[in-house]
TrEMBL record:
Transferase keyword on record: yes
Keyword Ribonucleoprotein attributed: no
Gene Ontology MF annotations: transaminase activity
Lineage per the UniProt record: Bacteria, Bacillati, Cyanobacteriota, Cyanophyceae, Nostocales
Alphabetized UniProt keyword annotations: Aminotransferase, DNA-binding, Pyridoxal phosphate, Transcription, Transcription regulation, Transferase
Name of the featured protein: PLP-dependent aminotransferase family protein
Similarity annotation: In the C-terminal section; belongs to the class-I pyridoxal-phosphate-dependent aminotransferase family.
SUPFAM superfamilies in alphabetical order: PLP-dependent transferases (SSF53383), Winged helix' DNA-binding domain (SSF46785)
InterPro entries per UniProt: Aminotransferase_I/II_large, HTH_trans_reg/aminotransferase, PyrdxlP-dep_Trfase, PyrdxlP-dep_Trfase_major, PyrdxlP-dep_Trfase_small, Tscrpt_reg_HTH_GntR, WH-like_DNA-bd_sf, WH_DNA-bd_sf
Amino acid sequence: LQVNKLTVIESYSVLEADGIISARQGSGYFVSTVIPACNNLKSTFAPAQNVMILESSSKCASFDTYTPLIHAQTQPGIINFGYGYPPPPKDINQIARRALKQEDADIYFPYDLPQGQINLCRQIAQMLVQQGLEVYPEDLIVTNGSQQGLSLAINYYLQPGDWVIVESPTYYGAISILENLGARIIGIPMTAEGMNLDLLEQYLHSHSPKLIYTITTFHNPTGLTTTQTHRQELLALAEKYECPILEDNAYEGLNFEPVPAPIKALDKHDLVTYLGTFSKTLLPGLRVGYMVVTGKHQPAMIERKFLHDIHTSSISQAIVSEYLASGHYRRHLNRLRTDNLQSRNAMLQALERYFPQEAKWTVPKGGLFLWVQLPDDIPMQTLRNEALAENVFLACRSAFFPDKQGYPAMRLTFRLPLEEIETGVAIVGKLLKKHIHK
Ligand code: PMP
């Protein structure tokens, strides 16, 4: 029996993409080392129960949070627990060069359609179908990162003064868009299963909000994933009260274990707008994200996209499209997941070793960070300054809560070199113990 050489090569790349074998330069392929299970590392997350309401604010918390994060990233020697992004794919230069071939300049450099390049829309639709979503290329709008999708959807569904429901805590970039618009924010506590549904229903009933914003998978900042049952119940409540959902899935693809399909997969009434991005899996600087918008909302959203910036950079779209076409994306994702899982486990072990027992943390099933809750009397600003004096940057609670207060907590990125995780956690653990045992 003769087997075609190409079949063998293809089989090797599938096994490698699935993490079963790995290549060692000059030596061939080897069966991958199994990552040690961390079953003993349990989540101790204990959700707070208070609803947070913000009726008005003139502050733009995300700008105040974001700018120091970016500065910290460029400071040599700093361990930055505040910010996590994927390492650039090794072959990105080659892919970019291939994507921008001189002979295709006519395709990429003129103005384009607002919804995005059809090729890329087809590729994204295919990717989403694999996640259980029934999506057609026409349902997609390629955005300038999912941040633009957030802004377009929030400004589409809400008027100044409208009530909106968010999880508490939540992504500071969403809080800022809502504040900037003059929306009134209700923060429903996040539990280990997803947002507290009893409280959600109470506020759907009493405040008639115009939108529910939810980060269903590897929630920012807690790292928690909304369960399948919770997703179904959340959608059922949204249907009952006819309240649209904005589902932000910025960390999709970064899972260590299977996760439930997005709520959008269950949506029969065009109630859910879905957001995704390549920022967490490829390169945030490319600024390529997408939204799935169905039914009557589609033309209106495309018009808004046009009004904002005509269309997303054709060059960035071409690079992403070429990367997806190259077949390297799947392999890249598998490597990311393997590396991230190793880092997550290293962080959990370091937390066990160095943090005081009063601290409680989540064990995310994917994504880039976990959430540590601390005792009420920890002076967070002091802790942050003390950590910075020892070259450790922390993203602390206030920006993540709608009322800017919340409980003492921090989001720790595990997407860091293993030795930085160990050193950084040891430093913060030492500082915490000092405050607790004062
Ligand atoms: N949503 C969430 C939950 C995020 O964490 C982020 C970035 N941190 C975004 C949206 C925006 O991402 P981008 O615009 O880079 O796609």
